[in-house]
């Protein structure tokens, strides 16, 4: 895992100036690569590449970057891992005269494949997570590329006559040409989604390369180049639905266990200590079980716990770890520990980011890095195998609600809103022993409010957009904003997935997963110089998942049915069967308690007026309602607070 950055001035530049500027950009990414650094430039072409290295494979100088191909044509800075690179080396040996290898790094493998097959064919043959910048000295072209699922980040954009690119915005901001002009449309997207979806970024003229895309910019017309896909998620959806896995439940479980196990095995390749996050839920427990089955030594596992009811999974993780025989480490976090992270968030997330689970993700990464350099994660299981509650709601509540007259749906929504979230929570807690397992919900009050919001909607797509939105009309809150289009608002880009539930799963995998979850994990882990790997996002697992029929994903009111069958072969179901909890903190009560003064200062009405980004009245109204306990606006308020804190941090840094 590494940090990459660089810039391109097609008019050329002085060598010393190019190298000094690239080194300044690279220095901002030292947390992503504390083990080594390197810069390279071509003054005639005006190109400079820089990399910070976290050494994982080939710890020798043979893994140093920027790295040159053996024929001298290509120079690359690479961030990520190619898990099948040894297979690619074998293919090169059989198809071509393989080069005399200098080391055993996957970056060297990629360069050799580029020489033999070209860039696009190499990407299609590769399995891994990556973002890279490649300079083609023969064609005088710069190529940027990002992995299929968006595990690794890559920003780019023209600032004047200079193209800047890098793993994080803080590297781009270190260049003298950078203009820090906030894009108010992107700010509106932040309020809607808790994050800023690709290709948008918080600054004007800066973009995120979409997952599964590459951007080739030739010297003669670099500004005219547009990103193109080398792999399309929607095509994987269609191919899977057109060739469904016709198998018994047992055979389907065999197929999934074999493919997921192969992915886990490939991602356990490392020259440094390796472990895994373990929450005790279905996804992380499955990954750890498959890891332990492939290891002759106890796998190192890590979890954090909270003392607050409804947020602590440490006891469940410990039980799973004990059963599997892992070397388990747990840390119970006190509110003061979590609160201490908040001032660091604007620097960790160099773009404002509003998912509050960023805090426990940072803490688990910090704990894990004390013992290992690489950690495997269970992310992706919900999107691929139907784990989110909203997929169940789509198949039950939503479909049934559409049969009711609009007047009845509006009345039901009003009844749900009439009860405060805290009262719903209390009632569900008292009734829990009498409720079937699928109704033993975490945070039922919040879910009741969300259900009220969607009951009156007219289409499944509107239903999903509502669930994916924190502020329903963010352009009315952000002054001077026009909300840009995204995948969620572009019917032409929607997958043809049949019914509503699989359509939602496909949309989540292309929006919420790369723009929120993977951003959160990457920034929180890399702030601790920890590499994370996500076996479920191996594209071969993704493609198999879309061949699995829906009834083997969602069955008897329960999601991730087939994934559970894999897990039950390794862990007794009673250790993992419980309501889905998520990875959160008691933010609602913290905002009314220990965070109240901090939040009040950032949401001060006079301050909001002076800064000129938000309509103060709407924000103050939600703040008052939240403090009173009548509504829980924690998510909406947290996103605003994260922007305010980010804005304050950036002003302080530039002063």
TrEMBL record:
GO terms for molecular function: asparagine synthase (glutamine-hydrolyzing) activity. It is an enzyme of class 6 (ligase). Signal peptide: none annotated. Its EC number is 6.3.5.4. The keyword Glycoprotein does not apply. Pathway: Amino-acid biosynthesis; L-asparagine biosynthesis; L-asparagine from L-aspartate (L-Gln route): step 1/1. Keywords: ATP-binding, Glutamine amidotransferase, Ligase, Nucleotide-binding. It catalyses: L-aspartate + L-glutamine + ATP + H2O = L-asparagine + L-glutamate + AMP + diphosphate + H(+). SUPFAM superfamilies: Adenine nucleotide alpha hydrolases-like (SSF52402), N-terminal nucleophile aminohydrolases (Ntn hydrolases) (SSF56235). Residues 2-220 form the Glutamine amidotransferase type-2 domain. Belongs to the asparagine synthetase family. It comes from the Bacteria. This is asparagine synthase (glutamine-hydrolyzing).
């Amino acid at each position: 895992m590494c940090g990459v950055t660089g810039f391109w001035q097609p008019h050329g530049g002085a060598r010393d100036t190019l190298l000094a500027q690239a080194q300044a950009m690279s220095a901002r990414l030292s947390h992503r690569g504390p083990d080594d650094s390197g810069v390279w430039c071509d003054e005639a072409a005006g190109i400079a590449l820089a990399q910070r290295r976290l050494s994982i494979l080939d710890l020798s100088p043979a893994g140093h970057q920027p790295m040159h191909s053996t024929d001298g044509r290509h120079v690359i800075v690479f961030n990520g891992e190619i898990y099948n690179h040894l297979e690619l080396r074998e293919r090169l040996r059989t198809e071509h005269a393989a080069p005399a290898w200098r080391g055993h790094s996957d970056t060297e493998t990629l360069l050799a494949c580029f020489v033999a097959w070209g860039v696009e064919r190499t990407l299609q043959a590769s399995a891994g997570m990556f973002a890279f910048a490649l300079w083609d000295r023969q064609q005088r072209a710069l190529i940027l590329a990002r992995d299929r699922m968006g595990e690794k980040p890559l920003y780019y954009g023209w600032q004047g006559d200079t193209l800047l690119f890098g793993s994080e915005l803080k590297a781009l901001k270190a260049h003298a040409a950078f203009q820090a002009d906030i894009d108010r449309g992107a700010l509106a997207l932040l309020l809607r989604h808790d994050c800023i979806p690709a290709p948008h970024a918080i600054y004007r003229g800066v973009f995120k390369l979409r997952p599964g895309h590459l951007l080739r910019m030739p010297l003669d017309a670099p500004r005219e180049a547009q990103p193109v896909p080398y792999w399309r998620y929607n095509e994987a959806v269609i191919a899977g639905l057109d060739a469904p896995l016709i198998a018994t439940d047992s055979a389907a479980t065999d197929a999934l266990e074999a493919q997921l196990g192969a992915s886990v095995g490939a991602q356990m390749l490392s020259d440094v200590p390796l472990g895994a996050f373990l929450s005790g839920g279905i996804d992380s427990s499955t990954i750890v079980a498959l890891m332990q089955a492939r290891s002759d030594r106890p796998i190192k596992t890590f979890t954090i716990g909270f003392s607050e009811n409804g947020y602590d999974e440490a006891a469940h993780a410990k039980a799973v770890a004990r059963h599997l025989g892992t070397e388990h480490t747990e840390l119970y976090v006190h509110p003061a520990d979590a609160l201490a992270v908040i001032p660091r968030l604007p620097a960790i997330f160099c773009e404002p980011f509003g998912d509050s689970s960023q805090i426990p993700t940072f803490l688990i990464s910090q704990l894990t890095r004390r013992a290992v350099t690489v950690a495997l994660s269970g992310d992706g299981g919900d999107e691929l195998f139907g784990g989110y509650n909203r997929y169940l709601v789509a198949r039950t509540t939503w479909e049934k609600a559409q049969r009711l007259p609009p007047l009845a749906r509006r009345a039901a929504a009003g009844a749900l809103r009439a009860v405060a979230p805290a009262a719903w929570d209390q009632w569900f807690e008292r009734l829990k022993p009498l409720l079937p397992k699928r109704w033993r919900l975490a945070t039922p009050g919040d879910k009741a409010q969300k259900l009220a919001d969607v009951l009156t909607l007219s289409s499944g797509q509107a239903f999903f957009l509502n669930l994916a939105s924190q502020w329903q009309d963010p352009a009315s809150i952000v002054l001077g904003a026009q909300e840009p289009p995204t995948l969620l608002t572009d019917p032409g880009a929607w997958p043809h997935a049949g019914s509503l539930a699989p359509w939602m799963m496909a949309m989540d995998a292309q929006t919420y997963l790369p723009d929120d979850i993977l951003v959160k994990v990457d920034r929180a882990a890399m702030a601790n110089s920890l590499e994370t790997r996500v076996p479920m996002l191996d594209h071969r697992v993704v493609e198999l998942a879309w061949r699995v029929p829906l009834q083997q994903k969602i069955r008897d009111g329960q999601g991730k049915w087939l994934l559970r069958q894999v897990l039950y072969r390794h862990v007794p179901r009673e250790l993992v069967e419980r309501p889905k909890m998520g990875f959160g903190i008691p933010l609602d009560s913290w905002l009314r308690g220990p965070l109240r003064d901090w939040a009040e200062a950032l949401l001060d009405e006079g301050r909001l007026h002076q800064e000129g980004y938000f309509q103060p009245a709407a924000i103050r109204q939600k703040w008052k309602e939240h403090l009173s306990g009548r509504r829980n606006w924690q998510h909406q308020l947290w996103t605003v607070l994260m922007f305010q804190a980010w804005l304050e941090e950036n002003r302080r840094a530039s002063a």
